Each structure stands twice: as C-alpha cells, then as structure tokens.
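During the second half of the funding period, the structural biology subgroup turned its attention to how the target accommodates small molecules. The most pressing case was adenosine-5'-triphosphate, which had performed well in the primary screen but for which no bound structure existed. We therefore specified the complex as follows and requested a full 3D prediction, including the ligand pose.
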Amino acid sequence: MDLRKLSVRSPVPANATMSDAGADAGLSNLIPGTVLEAFVPGYGLISRFILHAFGFDIGIVVSLGLVVFATATAIRYLKQWGKSIFFNYLTSDVHIEQEDDLFDNVLEWISQQQMAQTARTIKAATRPVEGSTSEGGNDQKHQQSSGNGGIFHYGQWEAQIPPRYEPHFGRVRFWHQGRLFFFTRYQKDNQRRSLHFSYGKAADEEGITLTCVGFSTKPIRRLLELIKMKSFEKQKSMTKIRRPSGKESRYGGAWYRISTRPSRPLETVALDKAQKERIVADVNEYLHPASPRWYATRGIPYRRGYLFHGPPGTGKTSLSFALAGIFGLDIHVISLLDSTLTESDLNRLFNSLPRRCIVLLEDIDTAGLLRDEKSDEANADADKKSKDSTKKDDDAISAKDLANALKSAQRKAKEDDAKKGISLSGLLNAIDGVASHEGRVLVMTTNHPEKLDDALIRPGRVDMQVEFKLASHAQIREIFVRMYSREEDNDAEKYGAATATATLGTANGHGNANSSELKQRHGKHLPNGSIDIDIATSAFQDGFPPREELEQMAAEFASQIPEEQLSPADVQGFLLTRKKEPRRAVAEVAAWRDAKLEAKEKGTKVVRFS
Ligand SMILES: Nc1ncnc2c1ncn2[C@@H]1O[C@H](COP(=O)(O)OP(=O)(O)OP(=O)(O)O)[C@@H](O)[C@H]1O
C-alpha cells in the first residue's frame, strides 16, 4: 500500500488544529488522534512535524502497529487464560519432591523418552559413573582406553560416556500408551531457596509435577508404578547407601544418598555357614509382612537390633552390606565419630528413616559414650603429672601451677567430649525414640564390646550378638578360592590387560614384561627361587587353575597362616597385590606371614614386606 498517496489524497484542512491535522487525516481515522496521543505520548507533535516536513501522515502506520500489538496481546492473553483454565480445571497433578527417590526414577525414565531427545531446550547432565550400568559394561570403550602398554586411562574412559539429556525447567508434553501427559520441572519457591543459600548451599532444590488430562490422578499413579518397577528392575542388584546430610543442610531431609553400589553377595563374606544362616533367618523372619502384627499383639516394639563385634577387618561392615543386598534394603550409615553430629541430629535421623531399612551404627565404642571414662583418664593424667612434678622439685612448682595444670587438663577433656556430642542417653533415646518404632534393622558394630554400657546392649536394643573372629583356616581357604575362581576370571577377561595394571608397582603389573624380567623382579621377593612365579604368571595367562588344583593351593596357602592371628582383611590385602598369581601368593605367604606377625608382636604398623 502506498501510504504517501493516501496521505496526499487526504490533505489537512486549513483550519484544523495541529493535533487534529495528523490524527484525522486519511486512514489515520482508524484510531482517532486523541486515542493515539494517549497511547504514544508526544504523538501529536511528532506526527505534525513529519506531516509538515515530509507531507506524510504516520497515523496509519501507528494505528496498524497498535492494532497488531493489541491483537497479539489479546491472543496471548486468551492463550494463557485458556491454558490456566485447562490446567486448573481439566487436569490432575502429582508432585514429586527432589528428596524422594521417585524424583531420580522419573528423571531417568523421562530422559529415555523420545521427547527428551527431540525437545529444543534440554539439560545435559554428567552420567554418574559409580554404580551406573555403564560402568564395566562397555568392553569396547575399555579397550580403547587401554592404550600405552595396557594402562587404563580413567579420564579417557569416562569422557566416552555420553551425558544424560533430560528436560530442563518448564513444561513439556509427552504421550504414553495413547495418553497425553505433561512433565513440569521447577525450582522450589524463593523462601526455601533463600534458606538454602543462607546455609551456603546452591539453590538447586527442585520439584517435578506430572500432569494428565482428566479428573483423576489414576493414569499418573499407574505411570509412576511402571517407572518404579522399571527402576527396581534396573537397580535390584544394587544397594543404596545413605549417610547423614552435611551439617549445613541437616535442617530438612536428613539423609542423602551417597552411592549406589552392586549388592555384595553373602557368599563373598567368609563366615561360619551356620552363623550366617542364623542371622539371615532371623532378619528374614523379622521382615516378614506378618511380623508387625505378631509384635503388636504381644505388645513388643517392632524393632530388631544386632551387635557385630570383633577385631578390625573381620567382616562386620561387609556382612551388613550383604544383608542389605539380600533383603533389598537401603543401608543408612551413621558414624558416631562424626564430630558435627549432635543428639538432635541423631534424633532427626532416626525420625526420618524409611519404614524398612538397615541402620548401620559404626564403631559405637569410640563415640562420646566413653565420656566419663575419658575425663577420668584426663583427671588421672593431670594428677600423675602433678605428682611427678611435685617429686621433682617441690619448691619450684607452686600450688597455683598445679591447679592450672589440672584445670587445663579438665578443659581439654571437656573440649574432647564436646566435639563428640552424643551421650549414652542421647543414643538410647534415638534408638528407643517414638519414631524408630517400626521396622528398622539396627546393626551396631564395635571392636571393643567390653567397653559398651550394659544399657546399650540389653535385650530389646540388641537382640543378637555376633562375634567376628580373626581368620580361621576355613575362611582363609574361602577367600583364596574366591580370589582366583572363574567368576573373577570372567572379569579379568573382560578388562584384559588393563586390569593387570591396577597393581602397578608390583611386578605383575607390567603386562609386557618377558618371563626372564619377571623372574628377576619376583626373585627378589621369593625365598625359594623365582621359577614358581613364572609358572604362576603363565597359569593366569593360559586360564585360571582348575578348581581341584585351586582348592589344593588354597589349603596349602591356609596351612601356612596360623589360625586367628590375622584378619580376613589382611589376607585379602595380601592376595589383592597378587591377584593374578595364585602360585606366587602360595610361594610368598610364609615370608609375608612372618613379617606381619613380627610387626604385630612389636606393635608397629610397618610391615617389612612388599
Ligand atoms: N569375613 C570376611 N570375608 C570376606 N572378606 C572380608 C571378611 N572380613 C573382612 N573382609 C574384607 O576386608 C575388608 C574390610 O572388611 P570390613 O570393613 O567388613 O571389616 P570390619 O570388621 O567392618 O572392620 P572395622 O571394624 O575396621 O570396621 C573388606 O574389603 C572385606 O571384603
């Protein structure tokens, strides 16, 4: 359209005022000049100027612009109004909090849907390596990352794991089984976020809303059940481990998941078979769905407590994890050594336990329960010091100095206690508290059962005590056989030469070394020559020893270690540095045993053996 012509065909009347002139000319009548003046301040002045200078009436352009703008706004408004009517009155929602496991399950599921791949704005997240199925599952990538003479480069391997793409904040729609759903991801309200900021944590608290069309949440519930089942299928062989949240965020969700790791099979814990069966049967009976009623009708609190006691490295923690795996329970680990843990934290942690789980309270003897004993020790120390110094020079040390020494020793003891924070009564309250009445399995571990207060281990708090001993011959044989059995072989084949390098620093780490080099290097350690080592290496490379031979070797190996002198962890540690060389392990065990026992006798931690 030729606007100039239009304005020429509609000259301004001579007697028109300046504002009327522009406003009323030609098609500018579409919107009267006075109205335009109201919308665009100074419009009259500008239009008159342009009209006089160029003979062109801008009224039509401005009018059209305003009409387009008004129409677009109206459409947008109507759209929003329609949307809000739709979402407020015609749909149903289910909200999921970030703290809940479902949050991750839904996010994982949604990130595998078509819409998450094709959406124009998505969020990329680094896939967690720990416990993920990608770990260990990609042989080709493993091999690619094993350049440089078989050295496995973790960074390179990790770089090849593609990120996870998931919907970003906002709403996206998706279809599932012929139904329309909406997925909304949002950040939590400002109040909560600012609280997080004030605790120094990033404002990453999020939530998810799933929406479906209709007046019932049933389709969403069905979808969530399906997602839960799928996640379970994926994670059924995994154990979730939770620890208390950091001090700064302990005000809310008290637990956070630190990792998910493959469940530990019970067979991998070398323990007396009958003992293991007894524990498993006991936990199984306790967890049975009929048990809560049984307990309730007899007025017995529905809880079960176990005390695992024994020297370090004898399998207390390992058995707890194995139990969690067998019964499909999450494991909640609390260390009473955590100096930031207060009694109210402990209460809150017990309050927020799920209905069924294992709570692992580690090293209960080392926590603040020793408060009185400690301060007694400190007092005794101060007394002794004062007596000694009195003996040395009665005149030199004044009574005031002695009082000061005593005071400072007491202050130190108090500080030590304050750091620990949990008293016996605090712990008992948490264990017996109203909130911990249902369904949890409490496992307490200690290296010093004799130091525990009777109240802590009375029946009702501890229902079964299990003693873990230093390694017996049977245990040593079991650990040896498992270390070199075919199941391990499978892994070894999978990882190829790369795994050999995991023991870098030991001779067998050098995958490319020839046999004479190996003989030389190993010969240093061997009391009886190096030829065995060479055979051992080739035995591994040609395949693991047959079962019968392995059992014989295990018996020979075990016979060289005195019973109940070394822990299973010690034995495992020794074998791990020879994890492809059973014969070398047998050949070197005597020297290692002597070094270990000597160190133990001397009370030194340094073992002169490599
Ligand atoms: N009985 C066992 N059978 C198999 N492996 C064991 C056994 N005992 C210990 N180990 C191994 O030793 C390591 C340490 O074991 P674990 O942490 O279970 O010992 P712990 O008794 O809990 O020690 P601590 O008292 O120091 O906490 C683990 O790698 C585990 O595999």
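Two results from this model are relevant to the next phase. The chain has five domains: 3-85, 90-126+163-236, 255-367+422-467, 371-419, 473-602. The CA atoms of residues 455 and 601 lie 35 Å apart.
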